[in-house]
Structures are given as C-alpha cells and as structure tokens.
Amino acid sequence: MIEVDGLTRRYGDFTAVDQLSFSISQGEIVGLLGHNGAGKTTIMKMLTGYLEPSAGEIRVDGLDIRTQREAIQRNIGYLPENCPVYPEMTVVDYLDYAAALHGVPEDQRPARLRRAIARTELEDRADQPIATLSRGLRQRVGVAQAILHEPAILILDEPTNGLDPTQILHMRELIRDLARNATVIISTHILQEVQAVCDRVIIIRAGRKALDSTLMDLRRDGRLLLEVDAGPQRLQPLLSGIPALAGIHFLGEEDGHYRYAVSLQEDGDGQAAPRIAEAVVQAGLQLHALQRESRDLETVFGEITAAGGEVAHG
Q1: Using CA atoms, how far apart are residues 156 and 188, in angstroms rounded to an integer?
Q2: How many Å apart are CA 271 and CA 244, to the nearest integer?
Q3: Residue 75 pLDDT more than 90?
Q4: Backbone φ and ψ of 66, nearest 5°
Q5: Which of 209, 183, 154, 170 is nearest to 33 (CA)?
Q6: Best exposed site among 30, 75, 107, 192 by fewest CB in 10 Å?
Q7: What residue ranges do the domains of the chain occupy?
Q8: At how many degrees (to 10) do helices 109-119 and 165-178 cross?
Q9: Could you tell me what percent of the chain has a pLDDT over 90?
Q10: pLDDT reported for residue 314
Q11: Can you tell me the distance from the alpha carbon of 310 to that of 312, in angstroms, rounded to the nearest whole number?
Q12: Architecture of the domain whose range is 2-218
C-alpha cells in the first residue's frame, strides 16, 4: 500500500532523513519511534505530501507522490503534531470547514460530520467553541478532521503528546477503533504508545532506520538464557562447535549456578536450544535452566540508543 525507497531530506548541509526505505501493507498499525529530533515529523510531512523529498520515492497504491500528490492526499487523513485549529470556531463549524477543504461534497457533509463526531465521542461538545476544550478534546477534534473524508490511511503525528493519563487511554482506544477501517501510522517518542496500539515498529535514529520489526517478532528474537553448574572455561569449549551460536556471555554465578546469555545467528535453523541441552547433558553437567529471553521494546530501544549505529533488518 505504501512503498518508501531511499527517502532523503536535506536542509543545506544537514540531512534530516537519510536513505529511508520501508513498506507498509493495508491494515497495519505502524509506529515510527524515535527521540525528539530523530526525523519523525519530517518523514510524516513527506508521506503526506506537505514536504518534498530531496531524494527517493514514495508510492501509495502505486501512485508517485511527486506527480500525483493531490490524488494521494485525498486518501490520507493527517493529524499534525499540535494540530492547528481555529479556537474561536465551534467544533461542528470547524469540522464543516475542514470537510470542505477535504473536498467532501456539500450534500454528504452532514452525514460525514455526524459519523466523525460520533467516532471521536464529541457529541456533547459539538456546539462548544474549541477554545473551551481541554487538550485531549482538541486532539479528538484533530482526529475528527482527519477522518471526515473516510481515508484509507491515517497518519498521526504524536497523537498523545501533552495528554494526561486518562486522555492517553481514551486516545489509544480511539486509534484502535479507527484502525479497524484504515491503515494507521503513528509517530511518537513514547515507547508505551507503540506497545499499546501498534503491530509493528520502525525505530528512527538520526534520520535513519535503526530497526523494522513486528512487536511479535521482537519478543521472539531474544537470546537464550542458560544456567548450568560449569564455569566459562569449561562451558565455552563445550558449546563452541554448535552451529548458529553467535556468542556466549557470562552473566554471573550464585551458589554454584553459572548463568549465561547465548546469542544466536539470525540465519540459524531453530535447533540451537536442543543442541545446547544435549551437549550439556552428555558432558555430565547439570542443566538448571534453558529458556528464551523475552526482549521487550524498551530493551531493544535502549540497545539501539547505546549502540549509536544502525541495526536495521526487515
């Protein structure tokens, strides 16, 4: 549905986005995760056609954004960070104005407004001036304007930024509801937002892709944690001949139990664990534990930040 290839944006000598490539399929909920200043908003602006790339290609449903920008924009709903609204207008008047800008035919606007207001739960606020609304409700108005034309793609830039905990929960529920009918791309610097609503994460570091993975694959992609009654000098030679092992890291010892983290090669055949168990038992050692380490997004994000380099795959 969305194909990005070699996307680059420069401002003079500064490269904000550098050779970024990824694809997003219909129905996915994808989080662009990165620290502030990583290039997320620049990427969002290019995906929505509001900023021209310095190099690279963006295609949406086969359409090239350089030559068919307006056609692509008709199929995208966009919530910019700090969504600009007219505070003196009422919610319904602003949304009617936004519907006109989106090109919604006049005879269809009342029904579209009712649906957007209902989906964002703004019925009780429809006649209020936007200036009287909390930040969370203003964000809902921003989402409502993004879905008025019933787009197939929703692009939400920092949708929970500045919201209180209750407002964040409401926004998450809204995003999950909207994702039933649209492909959703969210940019955020908050790990919990990706974990709460996304199927997949693309981590951006200094304008480059540092990781692209589904959250399910991320959890499966852990090391093996091994606990035996042998120190490193005995264990290392014992396991060194096992295929698919990338490294063995000694974690520590307690009461004669030696703990190790075993890193695996990406192209392994999935048989490393039984081979390790077999080698340990045949050597007459006690196998106290052997299990896959569960890596969460926070761990991976910390590793990428600490490494300071690209560890992209996918």
Answers
A1: 9
A2: 8
A3: yes
A4: -70, -35
A5: 209
A6: 107
A7: 2-218, 223-293
A8: 130
A9: 78
A10: 35
A11: 6
A12: 3-Layer(aba) Sandwich (3.40)
